[in-house]
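Memo to structure team: turn this sequence into structure tokens by end of day. - J.P.
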Amino acid sequence: MAFPDKRTLNVLLTTLLFAVVLGIVYAARGIIVVFLFAILFAYLIDPVVRFLQRRSLFFKNLRGPHIVEAYLVFLIAIALIIHGLAPGLLGQSAKLAKEIPRLMAEIKTGELATDISNKYGLTESQELRLKSLMIENQSYIDDVLRSVKQLAATLLTGLVVIPILAIFFLSDGANLANWLIRLISTKDNLEEVQSLAADLNTMMKHYIRAKVTIGGLSFVFCSIAMLVLGFPHAVGLGILAGILEFIPVAGWMVSATTILTIGAFTHSHWIWMAALLGLWRVLMDYLIAPRVMGHELEIHPLLAIFTFMVGGAIGGIIGVYLAVPIVAALRVLWRRSDVFRAHPEHATVLVSTTSHD
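Reply from structure team:
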């Protein structure tokens, strides 16, 4: 028998192809993550586009104008929230951006310690200790500043690129999905693949619905708590907390920091608010979010908590965000493949009975 035989050669080639695909996915993981977030953003905006399309007197058969309308509504809402929270925020941000190079230079030379001493009345020994601390930890400060720069650049790039890519998914997502289905399917399994795609589409809609529900609950809780405690801009800050709930881990940290900072500067009951936010975070992470996700995606709450933790351990913030939809998608794939293996004659029935929420 010749070596390698045909079967062994096929196994080796399949393994090599699988390894090459994994290598490409790993090398392009950043781009893939951006596209995944663009798809999620498209699912978030799609209900607004459909609503505008149904209520419109013109261009009902065209999605393009209504996508533009949905984006305009989104941008106007963000502008109103920013103006309601801090009317001079944009001007202050521009001023801060101009001051950053000077601050970085003063940190490197230790001159920032002198400015702090003059402002807060530090003693000479305290000023010297602070200056030496800055100089001795220069490499660590440089690493932190470099990480902050990279994070800011990544966030800004994502804020620009993700909505632009989402436009393509919103306008031509159905045709793209049909093209992919026909690319990976054959005549014999076309209906099964179409049914599977419909299930995955429904799952994604339920996931976005769960995220919107969680964001709405955060908005209600934070708004009521701040109104009771006498915070200024309570509703605006509540809207900010609800929107940032879409960003795992970092989102609630930013909203909590913003709320407590404004509370401290306006002499509101920020300590009570900090306690309430801490309690709400525990309830959200270990009770509300797992139950909402579990109900929408038919996943046990304990599995949802486990998925959050594993996703965070593997992929950080991005892993927390993508872990649940990935597990839900795998569940759909496993359930559907199991049904087709056991009852292949049910494929046509499943196509006709698939839910299209």
